[in-house]
């Protein structure tokens, strides 16, 4: 039997509900490209679901492989300190779940190139506000 996989986009969270809109659009874009994978959002704080709760839901749905993508621009304290503690707890609470965490999205050369393209486009009167 093939492993049931899930992908969680892990973001900080904010008090303003509208803050999550770009992350929701990103989730939808990824889900459209990976229809066989459960793609969802989870947050460190201030918004729901938090990562431990989302992981528990996924395990209850039979997920055995979880990939966490920190949707942060850099590898700051939340990614370097807070996230590893959460993931250690997930591994303890769900021993049948394989958890893989990748670098913060902003550490990817492709992501930086896309942001750079956006910045250069702003000079030409592009989508910048």
> Which percent bin holds the helix content?
40-55%
Radius of gyration: 16 Å
Our measurement of the CA-to-CA distance between the termini, rounded to an integer number of angstroms, reads 49 Å
SS-derived structural category: alpha/beta
Taken as a percent bin, the fraction of beta residues is 15-25%
Low-confidence stretches: none
Largest sheet: 4 strands, parallel
- Taking all residues together, what is the mean pLDDT? 94
Physical arrangement of strands within the biggest beta sheet: 2-1-3-4
SSE ordering = EHEHEHEH
Shape annotation: globular
Instruction: Tell me the total number of β-strands.
Output: 4
Describe the secondary structure blueprint for this structure.
Blueprint: E1 5-11, H1 21-33, E2 38-43, H2 51-60, E3 65-70, H3 77-93, E4 98-101, H4 109-123
Parallel strand pairs: 1-2, 1-3, 3-4
Helix pairs in contact: 2-3
């Amino acid at each position: 039997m093939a492993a049931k996989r899930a992908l969680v986009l892990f973001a900080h969270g904010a008090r303003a509900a509208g803050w999550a809109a770009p992350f929701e659009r990103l989730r939808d874009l990824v889900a459209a490209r990976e229809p066989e994978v459960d793609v969802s959002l989870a947050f460190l704080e201030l918004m729901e679901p938090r990562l431990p709760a989302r992981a528990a839901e996924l395990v209850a749905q039979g997920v055995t492989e979880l990939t966490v993508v920190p949707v942060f621009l850099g590898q700051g304290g939340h990614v370097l300190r807070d996230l590893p503690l959460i993931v250690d707890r997930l591994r303890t609470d769900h021993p049948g779940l394989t958890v893989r965490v990748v670098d913060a999205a902003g550490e990817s050369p492709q992501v930086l190139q896309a942001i750079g393209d956006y910045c250069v486009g702003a000079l030409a009167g592009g989508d910048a506000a």
